[in-house]
């Protein structure tokens, strides 16, 4: 009995999340992502390392680093088994994948899968709702739990026989403007595989960070400047829409908020539909006013870059690596009154990453053009990932026998590992890509049949009085003054009979009866 | 284990209600409905048809004249046809399940809810003193039920304003001498066939009762597991009959039960019947006397397979209500077994169209959410094809919330609806209709917005199907004299009584069973799939089903009767499973029993019940006493 974890991606790094777990012979792939920082073979997990057929694939959420390689995998390795994901993930994942295709093909790049592959792949999806217990086959049971992070993100519990584990995917332990905090039952677990994006960061109140952001935006538009918010089309964008829409309403601002149409428009429809996956506040008020019906946010096209006067623009890509956000950046960055907000995390090599590193510099946009960045830069300090305290809280709550960390940065992951070991005394691994971690799990119990008499005798009390031994234990039985100890040993009269390797628990009277019957002939 | 059928119910509006006793020592109530069809004994309007709501004065005069009428009847006792004046003119009371109030609420351990309708009586129970049972319902059913209850309260309030403050003491019609005066048809509804049901009548619960009730409900998703007291593992699975309605599995250490409520294989809007999940239960309790699921689909494994074309002629009878062939007509309509739902809906739509074209309006007192949604999609398409500019109104205090709700529950919808959503469209098109100003949603009939947009002819969806509450009452009074107008009734109400207050009636009335497929099914296929050891059926099905088929003799069939308690055989002895913690197993000291292969060992630890399984775990007591034993 053991759990084997083969880490194909997100081992000591962020990107291409993919772990293949074998529990008592059942092989499950958790996530199937791509790495956005690579453009060669390293972009995909090395599927060739998988040493047997998969029983199922589980996708935790729609981000490309968790689902990006799925169409490629199902096509190239002709995987026809079940793929489990939540309702919003199934709705939003094709949007993400197709948008990604458009961007790569637009850049002249070539991708390993086509739009047809995406739709073929989505056909194999089996939908799961939160907390549904799903019997994949006779032995394998899975269940999804709410993870926060993005719409439809889920943590997955898997159980085969006595061995059970949780793969968290990405999660957030604090609620935000549109999503609730991660929620899970107290489970008996052998293993938890957790993300660790912010393995060592502890964030302070979200409220203060939001206020900083709103103030920065407000000051900029009041001064007649333009605000560029490079963002992923899904998730963060909707959260900021709610934040700004609400603020605009309260402050009675008239400055237009644009978002580049297409992807986000479609996404907004889904956000309006998947009410049960949003935060409690949005759930409670949808009947009166659907929080995703924005009053001040309007869709627009590219021409918005050249408009006069203050505005706020949401555009992809989120790390300024291309798309409308890069175009707007080129145009707006040289002016002091403008503002660019950066997401909390930018992959190395992107312009977003360069901006985050230092302020007011000349930046090479591509090989031959450079830009004088004079605008203000504001770094968003709130994230959809849990911080280090959240990870520790979750692990303390679940108290598994083993922990494995993935999806983080190497040095801080090791620091977190040490912390988990010292504070909780739980074994913790931080495997690199391609490594296999073998986690032994003990058999929890043996099975037997039992008789009614046994159960009955166990349910009635069977008190025994004894003299408690004193600390020395030598004069215990003779000392009448030592306190009286009451024990209730209900199982005391039970025996287990092993007859031709069939075990049956019974009451001792039953055994005597059996013996007497046997002796007679 | 014992099963008591408190009420075998009547169709969708009033699902059956049962009590299961001693399920591993617990008492389980299955559904807690409200018999809203009984409301028909009340009159929503004074008997005088010329009365035009101008206040208490004329009401009093109407009441006086009513009293006189009663006196005359008392003296003469002449058998005249039932008249609107014979109805009870008083504040509405509501009829709960017969004899449920005779059970001590504190003795119930678990309440399972199968559908929205099965929940409407729950606030009466939850407010009872000593009630402490755990209530389980699906998330969607609970949310819909709350809307229905709130709507009921709002409509009841309106009715109360009309009849003024409540009399002290019980209502006058409950007095023995008044009951004697009731016409037999009405008396049967009030006190039941055997005269025992008077105790079930209660004034409606309050908003606070509903809030309190909803707080006590634990809501689940389909296939989510709940564990009661560590012993009973409960799981709801989609039954296909409505959004959020479900069948339950109850798994205990000794007994696995599947409770099948009204189930439909292929639903137009709700998630399909999940029959596979009910497999492997040794006892199957079938609680619905009328609707056995359609079996053909199981064999063809295609839920949307075609069903032989049907004879619509019996349905297409269409009449004005004053003719006295109501009984015959409704029977012929309700017995149209093999009418495909789609064709039925088409027929209804064509009737609606005819009325509208003739300049009449159409009133649809909807009840089933699915029917409302389907008609809301079909009617605009038809109107468009005729280029007819007829507005559609939905009037109810909860209409807006209800419609908003239907588009945020993809997890409970049927496959085709989900596909629609995944392709980027809203699941139900009413959002679009509202935006195009073809559909108007109002909270009340007197709302100013309604008055400004009002246009006749029109098509109106409004509660309540009992024709005693809500906007429907006003609309029927308006159009009852218009022969071109049309009222569409669902089954579940007795039109003889329901239409009384609105007579003389020129308006056309179409009564139709909206439930698909009432033909007698081939149960064997389903049972082969479920493989129960014991099948428990309502006695109404005794004659209709044939279990002589040799493939089916592997299980025993029991029949239950309303109002009676049926003992269910207990499972054979010694079949319990035990899991012994490996820590304990390592300490086993085997001893030989004289014969080969037979060994025994003493057990220790603590027996606990978890997730419906017995487990022997290392207990604190055994760990403490262990060393001392060694010393001895």
From TrEMBL, chain A:
<dbReference type="InterPro" id="IPR041897">
    <property type="entry name" value="INTS11-like_MBL-fold"/>
</dbReference>
<keyword id="KW-0539">Nucleus</keyword>
<dbReference type="InterPro" id="IPR001279">
    <property type="entry name" value="Metallo-B-lactamas"/>
</dbReference>
<feature type="domain" description="Beta-Casp">
    <location>
        <begin position="237"/>
        <end position="355"/>
    </location>
</feature>
<dbReference type="InterPro" id="IPR036866">
    <property type="entry name" value="RibonucZ/Hydroxyglut_hydro"/>
</dbReference>
<keyword id="KW-0378">Hydrolase</keyword>
<dbReference type="InterPro" id="IPR011108">
    <property type="entry name" value="RMMBL"/>
</dbReference>
<dbReference type="GO" id="GO:0016180">
    <property type="term" value="P:snRNA processing"/>
</dbReference>
<dbReference type="InterPro" id="IPR050698">
    <property type="entry name" value="MBL"/>
</dbReference>
<dbReference type="GO" id="GO:0016787">
    <property type="term" value="F:hydrolase activity"/>
</dbReference>
<dbReference type="Pfam" id="PF07521">
    <property type="entry name" value="RMMBL"/>
</dbReference>
<dbReference type="GO" id="GO:0004521">
    <property type="term" value="F:RNA endonuclease activity"/>
</dbReference>
<protein>
    <recommendedName>
        <fullName>Cleavage and polyadenylation specificity factor subunit 3-II</fullName>
    </recommendedName>
</protein>
<comment type="similarity">
    <text>Belongs to the metallo-beta-lactamase superfamily. RNA-metabolizing metallo-beta-lactamase-like family. INTS11 subfamily.</text>
</comment>
<feature type="domain" description="Metallo-beta-lactamase">
    <location>
        <begin position="15"/>
        <end position="217"/>
    </location>
</feature>
<dbReference type="GO" id="GO:0005634">
    <property type="term" value="C:nucleus"/>
</dbReference>
<dbReference type="Pfam" id="PF10996">
    <property type="entry name" value="Beta-Casp"/>
</dbReference>
<dbReference type="InterPro" id="IPR022712">
    <property type="entry name" value="Beta_Casp"/>
</dbReference>
<dbReference type="Pfam" id="PF16661">
    <property type="entry name" value="Lactamase_B_6"/>
</dbReference>
TrEMBL record, chain B:
<dbReference type="InterPro" id="IPR036866">
    <property type="entry name" value="RibonucZ/Hydroxyglut_hydro"/>
</dbReference>
<dbReference type="InterPro" id="IPR027074">
    <property type="entry name" value="Integrator_9su"/>
</dbReference>
<keyword id="KW-0539">Nucleus</keyword>
<dbReference type="InterPro" id="IPR022712">
    <property type="entry name" value="Beta_Casp"/>
</dbReference>
<dbReference type="Pfam" id="PF10996">
    <property type="entry name" value="Beta-Casp"/>
</dbReference>
<keyword id="KW-0963">Cytoplasm</keyword>
<dbReference type="GO" id="GO:0034472">
    <property type="term" value="P:snRNA 3'-end processing"/>
</dbReference>
<dbReference type="GO" id="GO:0005737">
    <property type="term" value="C:cytoplasm"/>
</dbReference>
<dbReference type="GO" id="GO:0032039">
    <property type="term" value="C:integrator complex"/>
</dbReference>
<protein>
    <recommendedName>
        <fullName>Beta-Casp domain-containing protein</fullName>
    </recommendedName>
</protein>
<feature type="domain" description="Beta-Casp">
    <location>
        <begin position="372"/>
        <end position="499"/>
    </location>
</feature>
């Amino acid at each position: 009995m053991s759990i084997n974890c083969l880490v194909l991606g997100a081992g000591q790094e962020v990107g291409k999340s993919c772990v293949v777990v074998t529990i008592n012979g059942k092989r499950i792939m958790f996530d199937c992502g791509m790495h956005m920082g690579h453009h060669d073979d390293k972009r995909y997990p090395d599927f060739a390392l998988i040493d047997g057929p998969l029983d199922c694939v589980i996708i935790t959420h729609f981000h490309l680093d968790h689902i990006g390689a799925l169409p490629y995998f199902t096509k190239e390795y002709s995987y026809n088994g079940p793929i489990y994901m939540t309702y919003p993930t199934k709705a939003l994942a094709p949007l993400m994948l197709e948008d990604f295709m458009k961007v790569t093909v637009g850049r002249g790049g070539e991708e390993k899968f086509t739009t047809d592959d995406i739709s073929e792949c989505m056909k194999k999806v089996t939908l799961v709702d939160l907390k549904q217990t799903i019997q994949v086959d006779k032995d394998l049971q899975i269940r999804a739990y709410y993870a926060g992070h993005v719409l439809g993100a889920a943590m997955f519990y898997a159980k085969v026989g006595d061995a059970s584990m949780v793969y968290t995917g990405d999660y957030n332990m604090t609620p935000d403007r549109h999503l609730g905090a991660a929620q899970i039952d107290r489970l008996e677990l052998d293993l938890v595989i957790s993300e660790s994006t912010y393995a060592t960061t502890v964030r302070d109140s979200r409220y203060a960070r939001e206020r900083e952001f709103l103030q920065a935006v407000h000051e900029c538009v009041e001064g007649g400047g333009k605000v560029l918010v490079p963002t992923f089309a899904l998730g963060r964008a909707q959260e900021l829409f709610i934040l700004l829409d609400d603020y605009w309403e309260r402050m009675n601002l008239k400055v237009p908020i644009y978002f580049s149409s297409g992807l986000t428009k479609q996404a907004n429809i889904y956000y309006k539909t998947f009410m049960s996956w949003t935060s409690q506040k949005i759930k409670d008020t949808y009947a009166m006013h659907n929080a995703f019906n924005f009053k001040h946010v309007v869709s627009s096209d590219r021409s918005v870059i050249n408009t006069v006067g203050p505005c706020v623009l949401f555009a992809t890509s989120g790390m300024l690596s291309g798309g409308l956000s890069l175009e707007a950046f080129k145009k707006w960055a040289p002016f002091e009154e403008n503002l660019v907000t950066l997401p909390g995390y930018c992959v190395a090599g992107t312009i977003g990453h360069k901006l985050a590193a230092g302020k007011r510099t000349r930046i090479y946009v591509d090989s031959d053009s450079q830009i004088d960045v004079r605008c203000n830069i504001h770094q968003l300090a709130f994230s959809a990932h849990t911080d280090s305290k959240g990870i520790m809280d979750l692990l303390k709550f679940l108290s598994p026998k083993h922990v494995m960390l993935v999806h983080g940065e190497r040095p801080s992951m090791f620091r977190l590992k040490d912390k988990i070991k010292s504070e909780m005394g739980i074994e913790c691994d931080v495997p690199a890509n391609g490594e296999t971690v073998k986690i032994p799990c003990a058999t929890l119990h043996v099975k037997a049949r039992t008789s009614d008499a046994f159960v009955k005798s166990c349910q009635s009390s069977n008190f025994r009085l004894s003299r408690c031994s004193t600390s020395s234990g030598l004069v215990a039985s003779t000392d009448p003054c030592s306190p009286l100890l009451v024990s209730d040993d209900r199982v005391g009269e039970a025996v287990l009979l092993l007859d031709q390797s069939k075990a049956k628990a019974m009451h001792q009277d039953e055994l005597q009866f059996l013996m007497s019957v046997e002796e007679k002939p | 284990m014992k099963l008591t059928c408190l009420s075998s119910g009547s169709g969708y509006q009033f699902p059956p209600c049962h009590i299961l006793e001693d399920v591993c020592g617990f008492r389980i109530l299955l559904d807690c409905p409200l018999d809203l069809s009984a409301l028909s004994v009340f009159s929503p309007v004074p008997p005088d048809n010329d009365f035009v709501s101008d206040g208490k004065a004329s009401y009093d005069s109407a009441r006086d004249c009513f009293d006189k009428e009663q006196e005359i009847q008392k003296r003469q006792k002449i058998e005249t046809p039932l008249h609107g004046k014979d109805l009870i003119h008083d504040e509405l009371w509501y009829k709960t399940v017969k004899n449920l109030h005779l059970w001590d609420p504190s003795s119930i351990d678990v309440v399972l809810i199968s559908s929205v309708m099965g929940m409407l009586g729950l606030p009466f129970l939850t407010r009872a003193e000593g009630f402490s049972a755990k209530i389980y319902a699906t998330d969607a059913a609970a949310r819909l039920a709350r809307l229905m209850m709130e709507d009921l309260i709002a409509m009841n309030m309106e009715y109360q304003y009309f009849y003024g403050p409540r009399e002290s003491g019980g209502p006058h019609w409950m007095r023995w001498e008044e009951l004697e005066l009731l016409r037999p048809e009405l008396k049967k509804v009030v006190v039941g066939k055997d005269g025992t049901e008077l105790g079930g009548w209660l004034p409606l619960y309050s908003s606070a009762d509903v809030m309190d009730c909803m707080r006590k409900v634990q809501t689940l998703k389909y296939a989510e597991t709940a564990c009661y007291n560590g012993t009973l593992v409960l799981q709801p699975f989609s039954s296909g009959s409505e959004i959020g309605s479900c069948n339950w599995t109850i798994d205990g250490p000794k007994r696995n039960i599947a409770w099948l409520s009204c189930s439909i294989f292929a639903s137009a809007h709700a998630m399909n019947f999940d029959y596979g999940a009910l497999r492997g239960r040794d006892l199957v309790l079938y609680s619905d006397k009328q609707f056995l699921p359609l079996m053909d689909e199981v064999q063809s494994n295609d839920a949307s397979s075609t069903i032989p074309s049907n004879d619509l002629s019996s349905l297409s009878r269409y009449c004005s209500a004053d003719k006295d062939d109501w009984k015959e007509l409704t029977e012929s309509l309700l017995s149209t077994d093999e009418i495909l739902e789609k064709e039925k809906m088409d027929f209804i739509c064509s009737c609606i169209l005819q009325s509208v074209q003739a300049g009449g309006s159409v009133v649809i007192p909807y009840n089933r959410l699915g029917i409302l949604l389907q008609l809301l999609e079909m009617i605009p398409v038809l109107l468009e094809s005729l280029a007819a500019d007829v507005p559609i109104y939905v009037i109810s205090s909860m209409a807006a919330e209800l419609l908003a709700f239907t588009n945020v529950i993809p997890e409970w919808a049927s496959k085709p609806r989900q596909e629609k959503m995944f392709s980027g469209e809203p699941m139900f098109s009413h959002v679009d209709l509202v935006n195009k100003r073809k559909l108007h949603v109002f909270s009340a009939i007197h709302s100013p917005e309604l008055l400004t947009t009002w246009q006749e002819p029109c098509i109106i969806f409004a509660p309540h199907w009992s024709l005693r509450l809500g906007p429907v009452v006003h609309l029927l009074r308006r159009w009852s004299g218009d022969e071109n107008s049309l009222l569409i009734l669902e089954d579940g109400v007795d039109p003889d009584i329901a239409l009384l207050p609105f007579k003389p009636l020129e308006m056309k009335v179409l009564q139709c069973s909206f439930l698909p497929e009432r033909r007698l099914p081939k149960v064997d296929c389903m049972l082969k799939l479920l493989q129960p050891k014991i099948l428990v059926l309502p006695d109404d099905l005794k004659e209709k089903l044939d279990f002589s088929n040799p493939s089916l003799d592997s299980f025993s069939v029991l029949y239950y009767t309303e109002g009676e308690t049926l003992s269910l055989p207990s499972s054979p002895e010694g079949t319990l499973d035990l899991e012994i913690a490996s820590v304990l197993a390592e300490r086993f000291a085997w001893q030989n029993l004289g014969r080969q292969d037979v060994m025994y060992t003493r057990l220790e630890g603590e027996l606990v019940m978890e997730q419906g399984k017995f487990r022997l775990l290392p207990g604190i007591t055994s760990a403490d006493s262990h060393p001392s034993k060694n010393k001895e």
